[in-house]
Protein 1
Amino acid sequence: MGDRWDRIPADILMEILRRLPPSPRQHLRLICRHWRSAIDDRSPAKQARAVVLTFVTWRGRHRAYVLDDLTKHGAGSGRELKLPRGAVGPGVSMVSTCNGLLCLRRCWDGDFLVVNPVTGETLAVPPPSESSPGASMELALDSFAYHPETGQYKIVRVPSSGAVKGVHARGHVVAGRAGARRDDEPPP
Amino acid sequence: MEVDKGKGEAEETRKVAEADRDTVTLKSSDGKLFEVSKEAAARLSTVLAGMIAGGSIDDNGTDLKQIGSEALENVVDYCNKHANSIPSAALISSSISFNTAPFKEPEEWERKFVDRLSHDALFDLVEAANFLGMERLLDVTCHKISEMMKGKSPDQIREVFNIKNDYTKEELEEIRQELAWAFYDD
């Protein structure tokens, strides 16, 4: 019955396959070449390949890296990114990374610094108004995220008391930089 | 005129339809003739609707050279069952209310209709439904085939459908690696 499938147009094959959940459907790319091309040709365009952006502190030194190609064992490549001034001082720790942006917490300055390590651009974000810089900052949990509906990046602080105290939105300026980041493909 | 002695229910519908002279005669690739309700054919098949509207229906049997007699019998059977089981008003309202759903679930009788088919007959029916522009029948048959794949590994699917694996070992490994790192959100 193998030739049956040859007579089924690729559109109909996809009609059949799209009734399956996405993940099992992707696994059907393993069936044969014809199925793979039917699935690949008719699946939504893949997003640009994700690379890992990481921020490490070791022996008092801060470094940022992009790691590429984690799929190849032992052959993955990484590259150190130059961190701008202000991101390398003492008391700096990472809140999170998002879309190639680094969000750092600066304990001594009592603020946040959003960094685009590729372009070197930075944006200092003051802490929520009701909190004072200094000790209280150490006790809070911070998060940095992108909201796709509004196109804004937000820093959310959860103080140690448990209540969400303040929300910072510094949307479009940072969002524009993220766009620039995406155009800049790390070298292989 | 040679009329296929089809299924009992289909036969009965055919007699009623013949009495009304409201049928069209379809001719399979191997020359067998089938009669189907003109109303059902026009409603369920965009191609037949076009032929009926355009007057290209042959009273001695409209040639459907791409469709074998077994598949055509199933098409006709499906049309007649559809005409019997669902009044058109109900069909219209159901198709409106389910318009936003991604797929219309097959009705109980439609499930039974495709469940009794062999693999070969099922695939022939998919082809015929596609050729005749029968969206609903295509839905039902595609649904059935997808159900046959559910919960099966690629190896099992190849076995069930007798598909030849034309990848090299290296290619398979490469695709597996891609899958291991991929996330899908659709």
Note: The longest strand of chain B covers residues 23-27.
Protein 2
Amino acid sequence: MIEAVGLTKRYGAKTAVYNLSFQVRPGAVTGFLGPNGSGKSTTMRMILGLDNPTSGQVTIGGYPYRKLPNAARQVGALLDAKAVHGGRHARNHLLSLAQLSGIPARRVDEVLGVVGLQDVAKKRSKGFSLGMGQRLGIAAALLGDPQVLLFDEPVNGLDPEGILWVRNLMKALAAEGRTVFVSSHLMSEMALTADHLIVIGRGQLLSDMSVKDFISANSADFARVRTPDTEPQQREKLTAALTEAGGQVLPEQDGALRVTGLPLPRISDLAHDADVRLWELSPHQASLEEAYMRMTQGAVDYRSSIDQKAGLQQPLPPGAQPPMPVPGQGQPGWYAPPAPQAPQQGGQPFAPPQGQPTGPYGAPAPAAAPAPGQPQPQPNPYAQAAPQAPAQPAAPATPAPSAPAPAADLTKSEDAR
Amino acid sequence: MSTPQPPVAQQQPPAPNWQGAPGTSYTSPIPVVRTHLGHAIASEWTKIKSVRSTMWTLCVYVILVIGLGLLFALIAASTEMNLEGESPLGLGMFGLMLGSVCLITLGVLTTASEYGTGMIRTTMTACPSRGRVLIAKSLVYFVLAFTVTLVTTAFVGFVHVAILEGNNAATPTGEEWFKATVGVSLFLSLFGLLSLLVGSLIRHSAGAITIMLGLFLAPLVIAIFMFAESLRDVQEFLLNYSIPSQLGVFYSAELGSAGPSGWDPLWIMLGMVAVAFAAAYGLLEKRDV
């Protein structure tokens, strides 16, 4: 059990962590999320007694880390896979750690086998790939067979087999009654691995709840409605009826409607009253990624933006379309529509960019082909991509909404094996 | 800055059911032992012997001390140089002066390389008693440096005495032997230990090595260029107390009567190491890793 009370850390004028209080309980995998620079690693370092908190305190099993008798046997941590001396063999690295905490040397070979590094045990860790380094770090964390485990980005650089292994490892460790605290940026991983989530932004606690609660608290669920494609007037009729009844209706690219603010039976009743047939009426829950983005979008410190290449672009030839921006790129607030509105499915635009000609259902029409009579009109390689751009976001959009959690669906097949 | 969604924070979820039954906790089948300095020493010994830089710096050190010692002895023997009753052990000093650069490097690397690689965080997580780690590092390094220096200086001493027998060299007395082997080894190992502690203070390999080289060479170099009459006292002090001059004291090669003599250099070095150790220990316990 890890318990933080009013944890605060300042580096000069910069406050990295402010008044953070949370508990990490045994028997569950607790995910630790937050944007870059939000203080996750600082918090982990304070838990491990590496950094001294400016105020507040954090204890493990009731003791501050540095007061724990034989800390390495109670807490195992993977902070940074690169935190090893590259000139040392993997085995010697672990052996030195084992000796430091009085762990028998045969345990070293045991954990090397567990993480699958026994064949490179006598190789210097300088030559290790990121994934191998990650495995070595996990081996170091498991060395003391501890009751509390902390992992900072454990799946970073791992191959699919490794990711699956780490996921099952975390669950197995928690099932044995251990406390498992994992930070990660991979929302799909977290959705599958974590039972509970602690989210911080700008060093402050944003949320502390179970994954399920987190998703429903931070996303508006919606219904997907499809009318017969052959009769567009039915679609407009239903849209009008739903809007009149107080629902919010947004067209999707493939002609379906996204409805929020109305329960599913009510939509069905309204359609029936309006004499509109339905081809699809399905409930949708947002993914963890979406919920996370909505929660943290106000607390993101380092936000990417569009590469303007100001003054470097050659003027477009007459008649050529400007390159279509990839949806979600450099558009703050992409995940944050006004409260009652439906959240947007990852990377799927509703409204086409300004000035684009639109198709019948609001989807951006394929950009006009280069004007005839100009065989090679586009010397700019970036402009070349324009005709394909609209096709790309549409492709994943079709299968994605049919799954309850699109992000989870990507990895589910791995589980099935 | 504004969060459109009010954070749902600060409120504990009511009776969370994801939590294990109260009291469930994991107990390892591996017996838990109470750790002590011995564990840390074993760990540091594994560390120091398992990196190549240790082997390289010590090899270069031994080659410099023995090689230069042999070279000077052979030159002296072949040119029939008359030592005029001097002890032949003094010829071993030049190799040690150059070789001590290797001891500086090894000392600094023992601590600072852990900061460079980030290994220090792994170490300090495994052993939150930071002072214990520093003591273990110091002991392991000191014993290693002392043993290597003692063996090499003793070997070079015997070779010198054997080669230069016919050059009118005096037979060294027991005290001369003791100072030229044990005394010099203690002095240089402590100097290397000072580098180790500076490495722990500076936490940067290149920076710490530069500082130690400066400490080693700067006083002599500065003193050479102090021509002004008013600075005569300062110049003399720098000359007498520079590390190479202090090393010479062990071979009865004092530059002037005002400087250290006998075992003084050892006590001076011991004092510096004590101060550096106190500073390194205090900062290590206080600073963030």
Note: Residues 32 and 315 of chain A are 47 Å apart (CA to CA).
